[in-house]
User: Fold these one by one.
Assistant:
Number 1:
Amino acid sequence: MADLIAQGEQTQQRWRRTLPVGQRVLLGRASGPWAVPWDPHISRQHAELLWDGQRLEVRQRPKVRNPIFFQGQEAVEFSMHPGQHFVIGRTTFTLVDQRVTVTADAPQPLQQQAYSSQFLRQIRFRNPDYRIEVLSRLPETISGAANASELCVRLVSMLLAGLPRADAAAVVAVWPTGAVGHEGESGPAEPAGTPRVLHWDQRLLVQKEFQPSQRLIFEAVRTGQSVLHVWDAGASPPAGPFTVRGPFDWAFCTPVPGEICRGWCLYVAGRFHADLPGVPLSSDAADLREDIKFTELVAVALSSLRQMQALARQHAALSQFFSPVVLSTLAVEDPDLVLAPRETEVTVLFCDLRGFARHSQRHAGNLMGLLERVSQALGVMTRNILQHGGVVGDFQGDAAMGFWGWPLPQPDAALRTCRAALGIRRQFEEASRKADGPLAEFRVGIGIATGRAVAGKIGTADHVKVTVFGPVVNLASRLEGMTKILRAPILLDPPTAEAVRRTVPPEVARVRRLALVRPYGLETPIEVAELLPPATELPWLTDEHVALTEAALDAFVAGRWQQAYELLHRMPAEDVAADFLTAHIAQHGRTPPPHWDGVIELASK
């Protein structure tokens, strides 16, 4: 494994990155992880690098402004081995092949000191402006890291920039029992409790092997404090290795607090001034307190910022299921209490995609394309549910279920549900006019029901989801299925229809009763109503037509079928929902059967 070290003119202009074997990377001023943003003499994409495991192939990109210098000569294409370097602009790139392992064979230090957070708060920086300037880059450092591995690279560079007397730095992790590592980390599995170096770097003037002390790391983890070890650099080394081999004579380790960086430590090593060997702890070692305080500030800020990132990711994940009003509640109240299942009044919307079976057969050779189209269709459903304060309760293939009235009571649940349902209908109707659009030929059926249900986190000990449970959910699903039989896009149960009439203005939605039916497999009949857009959106179906439909239904239920038949024939030809009663009357010769009770038996779901 080989690393490439970039070093600019200033100390903080530096990074060390591991080269992937057999994979080309782009080196430049703006080239992702391999960017060198501090050097204006480097082009945005200056060179291609390829490490084959033995040597590094470097090729200059066409039309770059400044040359690459290798072995003192301009070079467009060359290969190099570990220990060699090349220069672009004012930045030197050195190829190294160094190993780092944690040693368990370090002797007892001459001096050991643990520093509590309370003690470090009393330490004053002699150059606070520089320390603050480095710390101010920490939020950008963390937010710009694509994964944990990249974060470690950036942290080590920051530590070396903020600690001028440090010669080496590392991010080390101690896996607790049963741990499997952190997101973005790779490599062989480590036994529980074994320290592992996630990333490290040392200044170019230090070339010898770097071996962090396992004893020091364990002591920092055990105490939960920053721990300093000091050795006598002038003394002859014993048979076993020091904390680090080479000229290092001090090292400290600072644990990163919090669960989000569980097991992480920041390890820093260096040496005292060459002209002051063997300085006692009360002198130069005391000067290290500033560096320890700085490192602890980095560790605390790292934990806090990563915790904020985790909360932001959780918020983004929850936003796929909860409306903003629910998220705001979860932010200020105990989620376990808010999400606990309880019985409440809810309005449930069940929306199914029409045309999916036909499209799945037609596009069997392009299942990913079909999945993308179905995902967009489900996105229309969920966006409308969430935008109007609902909760996405479930997905069933090409169908989605949402509900209102939980975790907060919503007196205007009927209005919210109507807006969501009509928004879904409107978007699919608009999409159907675009023959080449992703939602072309798709339609939806929507069933809405209101009643008591249990809502919250529901499931088993192994798997839970936020959803709603109860007969009202089954009824909403049944109503959605009836949209195919009655040929009406949106159907309501009586409580929802009554709530719409009472609370929803006609410029938002209208309601008309369509039929009294007994759903297949159920004993209790139900009066089914249709949710309609306002007359401005559906001008061919006027309010007079709505009243005409309901008058025809009243006559039909009362057994006056001839009157109902004549009223229905006055409906516009576009109104296919009116054909349901018309067809039933015609099939029975316009005469009610004996013992007619006004209920139409449905033969299927």
Number 2:
Amino acid sequence: MIPSSVLSETSSIAPTADAGVSSLDSAKTDPTLILADRVQQLYNQVPVAVGATLVLGAIATFELYESRLHELIVFWWVVVAVILLAQLGLLLAFRRSETRNSEPQQWHRWLGLAAFAGGSAWGFAAAVFFPAHTDEQQVFLAFMLAGIVSGGVPIYAASWPVYAAYAAGIIVPFTYVLGTFGKVLFEVLALLVPFFYAANVLVAYRINRVFNDGYRLRHAYGHLTGDYTDLNQRLEGQIAELMEAHREVDASGRKLALFAERAPIAVFETDGNATVLDVNPVAENIFGYPAIELTGRNLLRTLISAGDPTLSNDWWTTFIRKGEPVTNMRVQCQRRDGLEITCEFSLTPLVNDEGDLLSVIAQGRDVTQQLAAERLKKEFTSTLSHELRTPLTSIIGSLQLVNSGVIGEPGKDIAELTAIAERNAQRLLDLINDLLDIEKIESGKIELHPEVFALDDLVREAITLNRAYAERFKVRYATTGELPAAQVNVDRKRLFQVVTNLLSNAAKFSPEGGEVEISMEDRDGRAYVGIHDRGPGIPEDFRPRIFSRFAQADSATTRQKSGTGLGLSISRRLVELMRGQIGFTDRAGGGTTFWFEIPKRSD
């Protein structure tokens, strides 16, 4: 009979990854994926099992053939042929199936039945041919059956229940024949055969766990970011080699060592107390410690700077308790020569089927030069922006004097050219101001000066001051009813900048003769402001990045209206700094509503 674990093992498996966490941050690999890999390995071994059955069957037939057993031997070969054809048909169906990865449980059960049938064919041979031959032939048959039982271990090692079913099909009939043969020696052997069976199942179980650890580790590495794509390809290659070396019980540890050695980033293996168990050559180069000196020492106390609050002992304790991977942690580290560097770490805990922590894989890379380059870029942008703003202001002032006629009425052609120059210089100045705002926000240097004021007054003021801008596009602003009074306590200048950005965007993308509506609402202690236009709407593929820097939809309308692509990004960050929210929705009848909410002043 097939052990119940063959039929129930997969049905008890359920995904353990947190539904609210992305695959990159998954704490545990989906067991269904691991089972799919194991089933794939088992089906890859079917041709080996079929070939071995044919060869061993031929040897047994040659040795045990007798004319009086001719019909029985022919019948046995018919049974064997039917079982082998069924196994090959199952293999063909598996390779053509589109559900072999999504529904591995069913394929696992079918293979368990096929393995049990194959073992039962040999069990039938033992039950029929053993009593009908001489002592020497009986010894030969017993030796061959023992070899077949042991040989099934590497073939079905990826699933110990499948092996148990296969071996049971052989052992049970053979044990029965030995126990009822009538000889004391055979009765003693019948008592020993179950122990031999149990020992083989135990070996298969241990190898099965090694496979589980190997598959789980491969998927854990597969969850890392795209920066490690090349590494993942090498990992998969190593896992493929591991699957071929299934006779090695300690393959999981050797595989991990190969991965770490070839990784292009620093890799540490630690236990739950952050004690270093192994390091790779890149880690030696980055931190200046030889592997023999790092092994056995505490990772946090040895490499992490004492003043760094991120990767502390308390944080590590919480991390081990949760058992969830963490990525992109930037910490200050200290090399062996005393030089401080900034590293970006990803930590992945490895656990077994029982949820026990096996080890922690820490991967790190030196980002000191990268951060220095980013800092230099920001300083360059800030300096360049400041240096450009002063001459541009002078140029704009001079052009405005010319255009206003203070220094004499310019000719028509000159007036057109100076007007174009003034508009483009103003656009450059707006871009520089936006760049400076972005730089201040990202560097944390922006200062907000909260004050209490009426939000409805600010909205009215913004409408008034931006009316001339809207008229350039033949658009007008209008409020939907009376704006309700709302007192807020935020930075007035910066909130005015947000409203101006939204109003100007709505005017630019509204059709000529259109109307931009402005509304205000009180929503549970938060003041809501909506800017409603009748423009073309937001393209579907552009929506996820509409609030990104320099983001502009690729359309003829956008290119015609121009813009820096920074206004919405700045607005979002300013609103968030004021503890508010900003977003957009489609408007019934066409167009878009951009809105923001900020907390009202609490009495």
